C-alpha cells in the first residue's frame, strides 16, 4: 500500500514533510514519559492555558495573508504578500505586549493560576516567532522546498523538547514547559527566511509600498473572512479548554494537554504535511477542473494512513497510559478514548479545508467555524460535570459537518463550471 501511495509526486512530497514531522513527533512522544515525571498535571495545566492564549493570537497574527502566498502566479506578488504578512505579525505581537503590560495580572487571575502571570511576558515573543515561522513556511511551500520545511520540524522538536527536559530536570516547574513551547513554535524560521531571501532576492527587491497596498487589497478576503474563520477555529479548540480549567480545575486541563500531545502525534505526522502539499497544488487542480478528484484521492490516503494508528492508540490507552506515564495520569487514558474520533475526523477534514480558500469560500468557512465554536463552548457549559467528554463529542460532530461541507462546496463549484 505504501509503495502504491508513493508513486505520485503529491505523495512523495507528503512523505518528505512527514519524515521531518515523524522525527519531531517521535522525539515528543518518547519524551512524554520523562516529562510526566518531571512535571505535574498542574504544570501541564499552566502550559495549556499559555498555549490557549498563544494559539488564539498567533493564528491571526498575519491576518491570514500568509496562506495566500502559494497562490499568485508571479513571485513579485507573492513577495508583497510575504512582507505584508510580516508587518501584520510584528504589529499583532506589539499589541499583545501592550495587553500583557496593562492586563497581565487580570488575565492570569481568570485562569485561577497565579504562576501563569510569571510566564505571560513570553506570550508576545511566542506570537512573533510563531507568526514569522508560518509566513516563511508558506513561502517554502510555494517553492516546493519541502525538505527545508522538514528540517525545521526537526529543529523545533530538538529545541523544544530538549529545553523542557533540561529545565524539568533542573526543577523549574511549569516555566520550563512554557519556554520549551515557545522555542518549539519558532525554531527554524531564520533558516527559512534566509533561504527565501536567497532564492527570491529579485522578487523581494521589487517590493514597494504601493505594491503592498495593492496586494493587500486584492487579497482582502483573507483578513476579512479567513482570519475570522481561523480565530473561530482556534477559539473552538482553546476556549473550551479555558472553560474546562475554570469548571473542572487546572488539573483536568493538564490531563487534556497530555491527551492532545499523544493524539496529535499520529495525526499531525501526515496531516500537516498533506495540508502544505494540498494547498501548493490546489490552485492548479482547480484550473484543470480536477479538484474533486484530487480531494477524493487525498481523503483516501488520509483514511488509509490515519485510521490504524488512531485505533491502536484508542484501544491501548486505558491500560497503557498509567503504565507509561505514571499512575497519577490514569485519567488521561480515559479521555483518549473519548477524544480519538474527534482527532481522526479533524485529521481528515483539516488538510482539505484549504479547498475553501482556493474556491474563495472564506465567508462560508468563517461562518462554519463560528458555529463550531458555539457548539463546543455551549456543550462544555451545558454539561460541566463531564466537560471534557462533552468537548470531545461536540468536536467530533463539528468536524464531521466540516468535512461534508467541504466536499459539497467542491462538487457545487465543479457542477457550476460545467454548466
Tag the structure with descriptive keywords:
single chain; 419 residues; mainly alpha; 2 domains
Q: What does this entry look like structurally?
A:
This protein has 419 residues and is mainly α. Helix 3 runs parallel beside helix 13, helix 6 packs parallel to helix 8 and helix 17 runs antiparallel to helix 18. It contains 18 helices and no strands. It starts with a helix and ends with a helix. The protein is globular and about 55 Å long. It folds into two domains: 203 residues, no CATH class; 177 residues, no CATH class. The mean pLDDT is 84. Helices cover 85% and strands 0% of the residues.
What is shown here, in short?
Helix content is 85%, strand content 0%. With 419 residues, the chain is mainly alpha-helical.
State the secondary-structure class. mainly alpha
Helix content: over 70%
Beta content = under 5%
The biggest beta sheet reads: none
Number of helices: 18
Radius of gyration: 21 Å
Quickly count the domains: 2
Low-confidence stretches: none
Helix-strand sequence: HHHHHHHHHHHHHHHHHH
How far is the N terminus from the C terminus? 37 Å
Overall pLDDT, averaged?
84
Count the strands?
0
Characterize the overall form: globular
Ordered list of secondary-structure elements with their pairings:
Blueprint: H1 2-5, H2 9-38, H3 41-58, H4 75-110, H5 116-119, H6 123-142, H7 146-170, H8 174-186, H9 189-199, H10 201-205, H11 209-218, H12 221-248, H13 250-287, H14 291-325, H15 330-352, H16 354-358, H17 362-382, H18 387-418
Helix pairs in contact: 2-7, 2-13, 3-6, 3-8, 3-12, 3-13, 4-6, 4-11, 6-8, 6-9, 7-8, 12-13, 12-17, 12-18, 13-14, 13-15, 14-15, 15-18, 17-18
